[in-house]
Each structure stands twice: as C-alpha cells, then as structure tokens.
Request: fold
Amino acid sequence: MTDDQLLRYSRHILLDEVGVEGQQRLLESHALVIGAGGLGSPVALYLGTAGVGRITLVDHDAVDLTNLQRQIAHNLARVGSPKAESAREAIAAINPDVFVRPLVLKADAQALDELVPAADVVLDCCDNFATRHAINRACVAHGKPLVSGAAIRFDGQVSVFDPRRADSPCYACVFPPDQDLEETRCATMGVFAPLVGIIGAMQASEALRLLTGVGTSLAGRLQMLDGRTMEWNEMRVRRDPACSVCGPRAA
Reply:
C-alpha cells in the first residue's frame, strides 16, 4: 500500500476490525454491480471510495433527466450517456486509482455466466424480477455471495444470499421464480429519493463487510424498511430444501 493509499484509507485503517489487512483485501477485491441507477449509484460510489480495487458496472440504460431526482452518480451534463459510463466517471472523480469496467449491456444469463465467476461479491441493484432471478442462478451456480436490494415508493428491503454457507437461502428460496409477483417500477409507482440511498448504502456496507470479514452478514435475514415511519422489520428466512435453484433437485 502506498503512502497516498495509507492516507486516503486512514479512517478505515484506524478501525481495529479492518486495519491494514482488511483494507488490503478491499484493494485486491472485485465487485460486480448489476444496475447503475438508484441503488447502483450509492453502491458504486461507496465501493469506489472505500477502495475496492476492481468494480464491474453493468447497465444497458442511458441517463435521463428523471433519474437525477435520486441517482446520485449522474449529473445534468451526462444526460443521454450510458449509466455505466457515467457512474465510472463519478467514481474516477473521487478515486481514480480504482479500476472500473463499465459494460453497456443487459445482464442476461449468458453475460452473467461469464461475469459472475470473476467476482468476489455480486450486488443486485436492478429493477425487475427476471434479472434478479438470473443473477441469483448465476451466483448459486458459481458459489458467489449476492447482496440484494430493492426500493419502490416508500418501501425498501435488503438481504444477503450466500451459497458458500450451507444454511443460507438463495433469492429463489424467498421469492420463488414461479410465484405470481406483481412487477413494480418506479417509472409508474414512484420512489422516495433518499430511500434508494439508504438501501444502496446498506448494500455497499454488506459487500464491504463480506470482503473484509467484518461482523455478521445479513445472510438468512431479510430487512425491510417502511420509509413513511422509518421503522425497520426483520424477517428470518430459511433455505428451502425444495428450491428449484439451490435445492438438491436443481443439482
């Protein structure tokens, strides 16, 4: 670690739970972030400022004026630019030492099968169930921890699905792919601007703690926030032995 890095990350290094070794692990880590919008913006910025050495950002969309109400990685000058490229610029303006690979593409099964194996942690910051389930399947197949977040209107949720742990459920255990869930989009339902920042920051925190080994992750726990009252509820979630993705029949 260089003198500049020791200074830049000094507030992390001062933490006994992180120290020089933990910060070095971050510098050597690779995070895959799917989505560079409301959740992906704080996720990418916090991972970048914290010194995660390599970040791959995947998003096929472009910055729109309506995004600027909450997607803090983007600005007015970059309206029309790919979100992945815009987020890379935002990280570089704060920490140019981080290598950010922006990919302007949809995170389909083929792309995920190529990208997930190279990552140390995967962060789901997308906005639709089909992509969430594709990400989950890839993480289960390749044994990679998944940090999942969601936010719509005033409601947010966050959890960790870690296939490295025998007792950890996967995303499909909690939200089965054959379940008839109503697809909700902020474009039609709206979303409270700070809510995505809260959930995204928690996703970044979970990822950083997974990478450094600090504390206990949210694996097996689903935390839900009611932004109207700022009340958190936690639900214990278990692995489903009949799960079509991580159960014995899926092998």
About this structure: The chain has a mean pLDDT of 95. The first strand starts at residue 30 and ends at 34.
